[in-house]
Every structure is written in C-alpha cells, then in structure tokens.
RNA sequence: GCUGCUGUAGCUCAGUGGUAGAGCGCACCCUUGGUAAGGGUGAGGUCGAGAGUUCAAUUCUCUCUAGCAGCACCA
C-alpha cells in the first residue's frame, strides 16, 4: 500500500496503480469533476497517471489558475498540431510549448507556409477535437521504437529530436484518442473536452527557425492565445487592444513628436515637440553624469578602416557597420561608384575606440584612475531590415555612453557605483522595476578563456555587492549573449505589450585596452593595462524615449512633457489676456502654447486632451477681468480649478521641476 | 536577412478589370459659444515602384521597395 498525504494533512492508504483521479472520485463527485491534474510531491502530473510511491498529493482545479492555465495552453498547442495535420495532411509536427499568454506550434508545411487565412479553418478543426472530448493518454516508449515510428510517419524533425533527447530520459508520448500522438513530456489534461472551445484564438503565423538557429530550415509557426474561459480570453484581447493604443509609433504621430521615412529607414526625424523630450532628458543625464564625476567628450563620426581593424570591429562587427569610401566620386555616368583603390572609412557603431584614443593622449598615471569619460555619442549600426522597430530598434542611435578606465582593484566598486547611479536614474524616470541579466561569452569573441572567466566573475561579484542578484531583479545569466569584447550586465525595461528591451548596460573589457595599447604608469613606475568599463544608463535616447512614451501612454511627467500648458480662450475678447498669461508662464520657464482659434471650448478641450497636454488654462471674459485662470488637468476627474495667474505660475513651475532638482 | 500580411488624400480607412470615395484634418465664410467634435463652402490622389496578362490594370500575375507581426540578430 502507498501512503498519500493530502494538503489538509490527512493520509490515505491506497493500492499501487491508483490514480489521482481515483482519489478525487473517492473524496467526492464534485472534486472528481473539477480536478484537472495533480501535484505529486510538487510536480504537476496527469490526473490519470498511476501513483507509484508514497507521496504528497494536491489536486489542481481551475482555481489553481497558474497551473491550470499552463496545462490548458499546453493542451491547446497539441490540439493545434492535431488539427493542422488533419486539415493539412503531410504537414510535419515539430515542437510547441505554452507561452506567457498562450501557445504556439512550429510546423514543417508540406508545400507552402501557413497564412492568416488558414487560421479560421484550423480553429474550427480544433473546436471539433475539443467537442469530441478525446482522452489524452500517456505512454512510455523505447527510443528506437519511437524513432522508427516517427520515421515511418515521415516525421523527420520528431525523429531527430527523439534521437537527441538525453540518455536516461523517459520518452513519453501522448495519444489523443487512438488516432493521433505526439512526443511530449506532459503533463496534460485527462481529455480534450476539459478545455473551453471558446477560450482560445489563433493570432498569427510567422516563420521560426528549427531549434532557433538561422542555419536550420525555417518552419511555419502558428501563435495562439489560450485561457480557461471566454471571459479571460476577451479580457486578454481587450488588453492587447488597449496596449496597441500606447504604441510609441502611434503616439509619436498623434503627438507630433517624430517620424520615420523610407529615405532614412531606421533613422528618426525628431520634430520640435519630440526633441523637447530629448533635450529635457539629455540635460537631466548631463547633470547626473557631472555629479558622478564623469568628463564629457565628443569624438569623430567617421574613422579610417585601419582604426576599426585595430580595435577589432572590422573583423567581428563589420556586417553591422556603414562603410564609406574616402574618395570623391566621379560624376561620369559609366564610372564605377568606387574605384577599387579607395581607402575605406566607417561610421562609428560604438564610441569605445575613440575614448581609448583620448585616454592614450599623454601619459596616464595610476593617480588619474578611475578616469570616467562620457559622451552623448551618435552611432550608426546597419541593423537587419526585419529588426527595425520604431524608436526601439534604429540604425542611428545616440547613446548616453561612457567608459571608465580603472585599475583591477577599483573595478567592483566602479560597477557598484554604476548600479547605484542607474537605479537612481530609473527611479527618477519612473522605472522602479527593471530586470538585470548577465550576458556571457559569445562564440565570436576576442581574448582568452581565463580573461572571460575573470571578467564574468567580476560582474557577478559587483551585482552581488550591490545586492541585485535577486529574483526581484529577474536576475539570470544568458550564455552566449555577450559582446565580442566583453561580458555585459544588461538592464531591461518592458514596452506596452510586454516585450522586454535592453536599455542600460555595463561591460568589463580588457581586450580593447590591449588591442589599442592603452596603459598607465603604476605606483611601481611600470606600465599597466587599465580595465575598461563600457556603460550606458539610458542605453540610447531613441529606445529609452520610446519606452518612456509607452509606459506613460503619452502622458509624460510634466518636466518631460513637450507642451506643458496650453492657454485656451473661450471668446476672442480674452485673446489679449491669454497672451499675457502665456507670456508670464514662458518667463517662468514653462513650455506653453496659446489656442486663440475660433472654436468652442469643448473642441479645444478635446483636442488638447487627445494630444496629452497636461495642463489646460482656460480663460474667458471673467478670468480676464479678475486676473485668474481656470485650470483643467489632463486625466483628472475634477472639473477645473480657478486660481490667480500668479498662483498658477508658481504652482506649475514648481511641478515642472525635474526630479533631481527638487 | 527569413516567413506571413499590408501599402488608395496629411491621418484613419471604404471601393472597383472601363483612370476613385467617406470621416477627420486643412483653407475660406458664418458663428463669440464656459470644459472631450457648432454650421456651410472649397482645395487636395501617377491608387508604393517597375514589368507582364488584357482592347483596357488602382483592381489579376511576377519582381522590387517600404511598413506591420514573428523568427534570427541586437541598445
């Protein structure tokens, strides 16, 4: 007999082979019906999978939402695969997990990739499978049998997968009824009918490489979102719709902040209002950097290819660089664009080599260290077309870049200081929550393994010293994701629809000082290599402003708002007074506009609300006579507040003070 | 770069094998109205580019290009 301990502490003695479903039935018919799966010693398992040893058992119902959703999504993925093979015979199945809000499955289509138009057909087939309430049955197979089976069925991807699963791992398959099976670790619900046929939706198709590697064949992926009931699904779809309204590209157009056009793809045209945000942010960053004892510099946009060869960028980063011939092109029609003997130059993709060149001017002493150079550096990177994404992924970017040259023994302290500075900036800018990752050595890299061991460990130590290697910060290590010259700490923020983007970073580099021969004279009178820390807090102004816009849904904090106040008239008799009001605000440093148009106040309120103007100062005859204004706040429930002009000026200039100057 | 979708007026989008429409915006006129759209008139388009099929292409086909979603790559 087995001793099964239930969550209430009671113990049941059952025969081996008893399933959690049997126990649920024994407890009561209500539970038997509600139970979706079981947690056996903390591991989620099929409810029909027999118990084999003493265990703690908890039954999972739809009230255990996280577990139930995970199970449901995993099932949806399998049902998707079954449906696709039924609608499109000859399609190979490969792999399909649950995701944060749904599921996907990758297929190798028989003759053409799937299109959006295929989705309704597949959805309909999925509903049939759910309606059929097919039992999902687990079976353990021998590896050779399984491979043979997949090969017989023409499932070459599955066969490859089965052959490569680690030795000693139990190879389980799941049957859907008696006519379809997939290799899967499980767990699954007891039958397809446990799912709500109205709680899922197929969203889109896309390409995806087999095993995530570009060198492999491309598969056709179908994404869906899946929930426990229709209400949850609708709530999710509504959320997606709302998130779409916060898209910085949409708001950028609506608020007249910036635009992109094909003649300069990936490079932003900042309009006056957008550039105000940039300026406010840049001035703020400059104050922070100055306080943190950086020296700001400015370095060349174009440098000779030989310089990039020496830094290593030519070898490891050239595919991302804009290369420019140093030659006066011929104006003759048939002349070649480049003569072939032209010297090459490249637009800088990074500021680091130029900073080393500044460091190298004159002889540096250990007394000069740490030397912190900062630059609002404009870089160009030839990013793949498909990667471009509004302000979040561009080809011309301005980094709040900086390089710290220090001794090895100063390194951990410098990284920690940086983490603190970054933390205070992110809090000022309204991002108390951010994630930290450590990107480890990539395949394509310079430097010895010993160097990488040391550099990676230095960052680990520093994060630990700063107390940020915790779950709150989403701390994790990412193998293979580092830069070619150094491992990097990455600081991530999230956009409107939940995609995360790297913004800040700090990297420990000994390669570049070596390659560019940077040195300082130590206390011992000998020459030593400095360690170089590459670091950015915002990352780039473009990406950071994009995220700033999305996180505030366009309603930026007052100190960053492009237009901080609009003075709107009710009647034209108040025009002169409105100009006086605006003049006073302008004198107090408020970014103000007037709206004297021949329109009703309703119209003006609506328009300025839609363009996210934070303060609307309404003036009519009454205000003009009394020297007051009626203040309407964006997004405020309260109607309006009448106050004297002097009060309004004092209040708004106080509120418009940047967070670090309060 | 790869897969799929999309490209019609400044914006959002209808539409058609016989060279085009709406709403908003814009200009002008009327209106001076107290907190999310007052009324009228008017201007505005090589239907992304090129090639093909056709008597005829914005519409069908192909190529290119740009945008969107995802993949891969990256701040």
Please provide a written account of the structure:
The protein contains 20 helices and 33 strands. The chain is α+β, with helices and mostly antiparallel strands. The strands form 8 sheets. An 8-stranded mixed sheet has the order 15-20-21-28-25-24-22-23. It has a 5-stranded mixed sheet with strand order 2-1-5-3-4. Strand 3 and strand 4 (43-45) form a beta hairpin. The N and C termini lie far apart (71 Å). The model has no long low-confidence stretch (mean pLDDT 93). The structure holds one RNA strand of 75 nucleotides.
Structural class: alpha+beta
Biggest sheet layout: 8 strands, mixed
Share in β-strands: 25-35%
Please tally the helical runs, counting DSSP H or I stretches of 4 or more residues: 20
Give the helices and strands, then pairings.
Elements: E1 2-5, E2 11-14, H1 20-27, H2 29-34, E3 37-40, E4 43-45, E5 55-60, H3 65-87, E6 92-95, E7 102-108, H4 119-131, E8 136-141, H5 143-152, H6 156-164, E9 171-176, E10 180-183, E11 200-209, E12 218-226, H7 230-245, H8 248-254, E13 258-259, E14 269-270, H9 272-291, E15 295-296, E16 302-304, H10 305-311, H11 313-316, E17 323-326, E18 343-347, H12 352-360, E19 364-365, E20 371-380, E21 396-406, H13 411-428, E22 435-439, H14 449-465, E23 476-478, E24 488-494, E25 500-509, H15 511-515, E26 520-521, E27 527-528, E28 531-540, H16 541-551, E29 565-569, H17 575-587, E30 592-595, H18 601-610, E31 615-619, H19 621-626, E32 628-633, E33 641-644, H20 645-655
Parallel strand pairs: 1-5, 15-20, 19-26, 22-23, 29-30, 29-31
Antiparallel strand pairs: 1-2, 3-4, 3-5, 6-7, 7-12, 8-9, 9-10, 11-12, 13-14, 16-18, 17-18, 20-21, 21-28, 22-24, 24-25, 25-28, 26-27, 31-32, 32-33
Helix pairs in contact: 3-4, 5-6, 8-16, 13-14
The chain binds one RNA strand of 75 nucleotides through strand 11, strand 12, strand 25, strand 28 and helix 16.
